[in-house]
Specification:
The protein is an alpha/beta fold and about 550 residues long. The protein has 18 helices and 15 strands. About 30% of the residues are buried.
Length: about 550
Amino acid sequence: MLESLSIHAFALIEDIHIDLNKGFTVITGETGTGKSILLSALSLLLGGPGDTQSIRNGFDSASVSGTFVLETPANEIKKLLSALSIDIEDNIIIIRRVLKSNGRTLSYVNDFPIKKSSLIVISSYLVDISAQHAHQSLLKCDKQLSLVDNFSESNILLEDYQKLFHLLNKLKDERDNIIDLIASSKKEEDYLNYAFEEISKVDPKEEEDDNLTDEIHKLSQFENIHENLLGTVEMLHSSYEGGSTINNLNNSLTSLTKASHIDSILEKYQERLNSAVLECEDIYESLKDYLQDMSFSQENLDVMQQRLSQLQRLKKKYGPTLSHVIEFRDEINEKLEAINNSSDDIEFIDNKIKKCNLQLVETASLLSIKRLKGANELSVAIEKSLHSLGMPHAVFKTILIKRDDYSLFGKESVEFMLSANPGLESRPIKEIASGGELSRVMLAIKTTLREKDPVSTLVFDEVDAGIGGVIASSVANELISLSTSSQVIAITHLAAIAAKADTQLVVSKYVKSLMSYTTIVSVENEERTKEIARMLSGDSESIISLKHAESLLESE
């Protein structure tokens, strides 16, 4: 429900704040005081167009903000807000709209800036305004179809259909991708076969080129390595005069051992020197074995250089690295397999498409049958409601329009049609010229669907146009009935309707320092009686009017 509305610098309004209640609220006031301004401000808040002429003189911008409280599970709007990364706490949504003097409008939901298109979608879950040229979701064909589905309890069947619809489109996309892959692959099939054969013949391995480069480098430096390694071994352990490094270390160890027997402090150095001798002997043995195993083969060097040359050519053609070459070979293999298996793949997915399509057609047919039954029952119920609302000759029809193809919502669209008077051709309700007629149609639809429609705040303007007496009382009763499940706000000129409301707000205008101002206040007790009396006779002080007003209020 709409908990509060704040308007700043909008037309005749400088600053007003309105707290709104549950149930049935009426807005009244003399002609020209600004009731339509409230409606325009609310329309702007919900995503309607902004007109710079609406900005009050002396201000650079106008703004409207509204606080909404979600009282039902409201799963759909919560999903929508989540998708837009908008946080919601305590089920409160605050919408703010700013109209700049340069014509730009800024939209915010819970202080998060959003696009106008997103705001319109969000607000469609919150408020319906029934007034000529105003924000009305029920005038949209997709909304009408949704209401038919809710009324006919077709939603579960629709979900099944939509799953099949998405699956069918996914399968068709897969088929198109296979066909595109085959088509592009066949154009280069000769090249693919040549490249695959060339790479496969060489059969490169990961990092093989790096390993070969290391091996070639070692072989090419064989003499240098052998000479230096031989010198190292001889110096470590040589029989030449002067002794080897290891012999010298052993002699040093013998001397240090003798000294450590006398001075125990030297024992730690003796241990370290002993470890050094053992390590040098181990190094000597290892290097001697390595040296014995070393051999040079020009033939092996030539083979490795030739192999590296092959790998370098592959890298140049299909690289830049050997990993890229191997990856490219695997991709080629997949494409060639796709070409070879194309007939089987297409046949397989065609069978899946055929099966899915049959299920889709069957489910769509069941959905159409259920919708048709619901549409007929809905038409009868709405038409009956219209007759009680001062349109005794109205003919209401819910028309299912067959599509040439299958859409996400089935095989048909919906159009609400109305003939308001005898002899007139039925027309879509969105083409109805009379604001009063349209408001009563919307009231009839809302009353019929009040348990099915998630929108919790309903605003009616001109719902009393051209009616009075018993019909006015019927309209009032319909509004009261509707307010048991929704917040209902109605702008009215009829005392018979205003007197039945739970809350009455009065709009008035005054002039101060040559400037006009519009205000709105809630009235109760004596003040409300005077307003009802004014609505009855134009005179809020007339004793007869006051007594009549009191009787209307007491009867409620």
